[in-house]
Amino acid sequence: MKSMLILTDFSEAALRAAEYACELVDTLQIRRIVLYHAYQTVVGGTDLPIATAMNDQEIYLKSMEALGMMHDRLKSLVGQTVKIDMLAEDTSFLPDLLNQLCRKEAIDLIVMGVSGKSALEKLFMGNVTAQTLRSSEFPVLIVPQDTIIGRAIKGIVLTTDLKDFSTIPVTLLYQFLDAFPAEINVVNITTESEEKYSLETEESIKELHSVLEKYQPAFHYIKGEDIVPDILSFTEQHKASLIITVPKKHGFLSTIFHKSISKKLAYNSPVPLLSLPALH
């Protein structure tokens, strides 16, 4: 990996995500960071620039000034070998343009923070986060505001659906698992009503074991009705510091990114979430 895109609205949550991302620079062999601010994304009740209060040029200049301050703070964390670029754009809705931006800037990883300061912010960020994860063609790292900075990734929880193994981006998954020499727990949660696996699912289980064999993971097949709480409980019990998942528009774990459930995952867990784009 070479380039990382850090989304920022200049909030404390965004700064924490940026600082966390900087700690991964050497591990992921990042040589370029792009700090990005969509300055027309307006949320009432926050300190974000409001379009009606000033003209577009003034908003742009204020955005670049804030990016410059963030640049200086992060530069001290990554050193001189990592280039930090700044980009502020007038865009009405970020997820729609994110893939285009990443292709243009040759981005390998998107980083964004989440917090829960107010109900309105939760609603807005929950929607933006969920839609970014669903639509992104690139890996997205979601960093909760309470994430501890300076703690190495020693435990990973990898969630799977088993129903369509072909959607797992194996090569991309290998890149991250190779970068983080951590204990890996592979988790699949099925509902109590599912008495047994289908032949297709059993075949997917065999493929998954074969693909991940070199990492010597532990496999866990758990019965449960509340997917997100069960994943978070498992993560806490095993003291994992990263959750990796492959969200899809339909199927297991797609409900994680439904508005109400995504809030639970994004705002209640101190553990970062790495979302890998599913293959089609």
SSE inventory with pairings:
Blueprint: E1 3-7, H1 12-23, H2 25-28, E2 32-38, H3 56-78, E3 83-89, H4 94-105, E4 109-114, H5 119-135, E5 140-144, E6 155-159, H6 170-179, E7 183-190, H7 199-212, E8 218-223, H8 227-237, E9 242-245, H9 259-268, E10 273-275
Parallel strand pairs: 1-2, 1-4, 2-3, 4-5, 6-7, 6-9, 7-8, 9-10
Antiparallel strand pairs: 5-10
Helix pairs in contact: 1-3, 4-5, 5-9
Can you walk me through this structure?
- The chain is an alpha/beta fold and 280 residues long.
- The chain has a ten-stranded mixed beta sheet with strand order 3-2-1-4-5-10-9-6-7-8, with helices on both faces.
- The protein has nine helices and ten strands.
- 40% of the residues lie in helices and 20% in strands.
- It is elongated and about 60 Å long.
- The protein folds into two domains: 3-144, 3-Layer(aba) Sandwich (Rossmann fold); 155-275, 3-Layer(aba) Sandwich (Rossmann fold).
Key attributes of the depicted protein:
10 strands, Rossmann fold, elongated, 40% helix, 280 residues, alpha/beta, 2 domains, 10-stranded mixed sheet
Counting structural domains, the number is: 2
Strand order across the biggest sheet?
A: 3-2-1-4-5-10-9-6-7-8
CATH superfamily of the largest domain, called what? HUPs
Known CATH architecture of the largest domain: 3-Layer(aba) Sandwich
Q: Kindly state the mean pLDDT as a whole number?
A: 82
Question: How many angstroms separate the termini?
Answer: 22 Å
Largest sheet: 10 strands, mixed
CATH fold name of the largest domain: Rossmann fold
Q: How many individual β-strands?
A: 10
Structural class: alpha/beta
What's the gyration radius in Å?
19 Å
CATH class descriptor of the largest domain? Alpha Beta
What is the count of helical runs? 9
Strand residue content: 15-25%
**What general form does the structure show?**
elongated
